[in-house]
Structure formats: structure tokens, C-alpha cells
Amino acid sequence: MEELKHVTVLFKTSIVEHFGEALLKSLCNLNSWDDNQNLDISLVYNLLRNVCKNVTPPRRGWGYEPSDADVSLGADIERIRLMWNRYCDEATECLYLREIFVRMVNRYGNISDDVKLQDTDKKKILSFELNPECQIEDRLVLTKAIKSVLEILEREHIVVVIGALGTGKSTCLKYIESHYRRNQWTVSRKETSITNLALNVDGIKKLFCCDNLFGVYNRGNFAETDEIIKVLENIEQKVNHELKVVFAIHDHVYEELQKIHRIRVFQNKRVVVDFNELSDAEMLLILNDQRDYGHCANDPKCWFRNVDFELVKNTLQENPGKLGDPILTLLYSNRHDIFTKREATRNIVRELCTIFQNMLEDTPDLFNVLMYVMFVKTHNLDKNVEEWASELGGLNSITVKKNVGQLDAFLFVEADGSRIEIKHELLSFALFKCCASSMKYVFLLLKHCRFEMIEEIIRPDSTTNPGEFCVILEKEMYDRLSSRILEEDLFEQLKEHPLLKEKSLFRYKLYSMSSDNGRKIRVVKK
Length: 526
Hints:
With about 525 residues, the chain is an alpha/beta fold. It folds into 4 domains: about 1-110, no CATH class; about 135-275, P-loop containing nucleotide triphosphate hydrolases (Rossmann fold, 3-Layer(aba) Sandwich); about 300-340, no CATH class; about 350-515, no CATH class. The chain is built from 23 helices and 12 strands. The protein has helices at about 1-10, 10-30, 40-50, 75-90, 95-110, 145-155, 170-180, 225-235, 250-260, 265, 280-295, 310-315, 325-335, 335-340, 350-360, 365-375, 395-405, 425-435, 440-450, 450-455, 480-485, 490-495, 505-515; strands at about 135, 140, 160-165, 185-190, 205-210, 245-250, 270-275, 380, 410-415, 420, 460, 470. Strands 4-5-6-3-7 form a 5-stranded parallel β-sheet. It has a 3-stranded antiparallel β-sheet with strand order 8-10-9. The protein has a two-stranded antiparallel ribbon with strand order 1-2. Helix 1 (about 1-10) runs antiparallel to helix 2.
């Protein structure tokens, strides 16, 4: 029954096109196998033809008279359809009927005596090809949004992918890269600043993809924002179909940018693709894949395998839209305990922070391993951890290797089995926020975490409406962050950051510490 319900989701448009809303409704309302007798016979035939995996097509194909030698199930189903249609045309001879009956009994056992032929309404059985609303290619669900990106790239030279965090933008960019490589394009990703992008392609077809152009969490490129915008405007003006550019940006990063800059390319609706909306069919396929490769993959009796899609949909209705549904179902597929609390969907960051806080109290080694991986972004298990890792509860390489297997829900292991990183930036942000709430761990965070992450997430206490993915820097931490900026000479990178706005208390602290240490920093006025 569950499979039939999935069919109604995946083939909804095609079923409605050929059979109408009423028949779709009757299919959706099936509660037991006894309800099958109420289904339209043409609908049943076409479900057998298009959907049932154990029914292979006749050798001559659907819609044609099967050969005598073809005694497959699909061929017999097609014979029954053709016999019935001839009967509707007043034919009285039904060849092969006895042989088909015997084969059906051999396949399925005795047929119930309750089955009666009702010919009061001789309606022919129609044959249609039903098409699913979306397809899967190499485990990737080809959503309408991904197809839109491909279609726009055919006629334009720039595409902007916008959506909430966790809507599948990064997955889309990886697919676009693979698609263009197969078509003999030279493909490159943003490894350094986009300001170094060469717009002259010299006759070589080039695709440039940039994920999180202005930052993973928030605007991480304050010092380069103006230069990046100039590059975008140059690309927009330079109509060259041998250069294609695709870049992705989170909704909340875009909103922060819009407060100061009105970037022209964002206003061009012809090249902007919104990833926030998913059809039920797309969501179902994504969930099924995540369920197959999540926690349930190692536990065939896991209760989450049997969770109804409608229940998942109802849970996702609590999503306020600050996160994409795919990241929520990914979390549910790996941490089912989140799914048991429907209200958790309203504030998943808070729920994750609670999980991390409990981990810190109950299994500190696991927490410290996660924290270390967040600090360095990627860790190679074949190499020793950084020397300073000992500050995290005496963490060492042995401890990391010992605990990796217990962190499947959070850590992603690359194909070689040695390089590990946190599965998604949402998990990293929640961990960052959890650390920032502890005086002990925020000190270590500001001292050792990748500075790009600190730059994007941290905001001054004067910030109004800081947003979902910001953390306010408490005054008690000014000295620690100022020391790191001075020690690593990071002022130039941070000079346009809100922390260093005029009359900012943090700016004053940084300037005072530099003077006390006999160091001079160039304070840039805006």
C-alpha cells in the first residue's frame, strides 16, 4: 500500500492528465488491498505497465499483440487488455484465455471465486505511458530547479542560484560541473577570490562555478565586496557564450547584501533560479535516498524505514523557511530522535545545540573530536592532529580515530576513507554557536578556529537584527580576538567588518592593544 501511495506522488501530474483528479483521489485513499476492486481498470493496467517493477514489457512492447512464444507476465497482461477491448467491440472469440488463466494460477495461486465479470459498462482499457515528475541520475534527484539552471545556461552566460541554507544549491553546482565536463568544457571552481577570474577565454569553452560567493554563513568577504560586485557587473556586460558562470548564494547572505548594495545581476529574473520550492515528488525521492544511505542503512529493522511520507510532510510544515527541507530530512534520516519532536523543526539550530551540549556532558571525547574537525575543516586520519589539539581535553590522533565511527551522523568521510569533515555547514554553525555559549570553549574557538568562519559568524554587540546565522561577540572575548588579529596580522582582511565600524568598542580595544604592544595598524575610515 505504501508503494502505491508513493506512486500517486511520483506520477501525480501524468495520472491526473490521463485519468483525472477523481481517480487519483481514489488511489490516494486506498487503505487495504480489498479496495483495489474499486479502482478503474485502465488505471490498474497502466500502473502495472508503468510502475510495477516485477512486470517486464512484452518483447514487442506495450500496445502490440505479443508473440505466441512470449509467455511473460507483461505479455499476458497485454493479451488480457487486447481480449477485453475486442470483447467491447462485440468479438466473442478469446484465444489463449485458458493458457493465460493457468499461468496466472501458477504465478499467484487459485483466483478467488468472488471475482465476477461485470460487463454492464464495456469500457475499453486504454494504454498510456506515465511519466514520473522527476528522474534520478547517479543518486541525484533532477529537480525542476536544477533543470532550470541547465536551460538558462543554454541561452545565457551567467546563472544565479538562490535559496535557504540546505536547499541543494551545492549539489546543483556539482551536477552542473559534471554535466559540462562531459560536454568537453573546461570547468573550474572558486578556490581563491573571484576577483582573480579571467574573463578572456581565448576560444576555450570554460565554466566557472562559485559556491557561497559572499560567504558560507554570512558575508565573509567584507573587504572584497566592492571588487566582487565589479567582477559580476563585468561578467554581465561581457556577452561571451564561451564563458559560463554559475554562482550560489544563501537567502540570508543576499538579504544582508541588499541592505547596502543593490547588485544588478540579482535583479535580472531571467538568470535567477530559486531553490526554495520542491514538489512532493522531488521531496519524496530525496527523502528515500537519504533514508537508504542514512542510519537505516545499517539497521534493517529501524522504525524510521516505515515512517509515512505524509507524516514527514506534516512535520516539514513547521519549517519557518530559514532552512531548506532537504537538510531537515537529511538530519531526520541520520538522527531520528529529532523527528520525534515535531516542534524541533521550528528551530533546528536550537535542537542541534541541545544535542551538542548533551554530547559535551555525556561523551566529551566525541564533542572534542567534532570541535577539532570544525576548527580545521578537513582532517586527514593518516596525519597527526595539530599540536594545539591537546587543549581540547587532551585530544590526539588516537582519540580521533577511535571516535570517528561513532559520529556517522555528523562526519562525512571522503572516498579514500581517511579525510573527514563535518557533513553540512548547518552542523558546523550549530556547533560554533554551542561553543560560543561556553566561556571555556569560546576562548578555544577564537584562538584556533579557521578565521574565515569567525569572520563570517561573529558580529558586534551593537548589531541590530543580527539574523539567524550570527553570533554576538561578548565584551569578555574582545582581548582574545584582538590578540589573534594582531598575532596573525589579520587586520587588513577584517578592516571592513562590522566589528571595526567607527566608534565600535571592539575597534577601540584592538587599536589600544596594538598601541600597547608597540604595533601600528592602519585604521581605515569609511
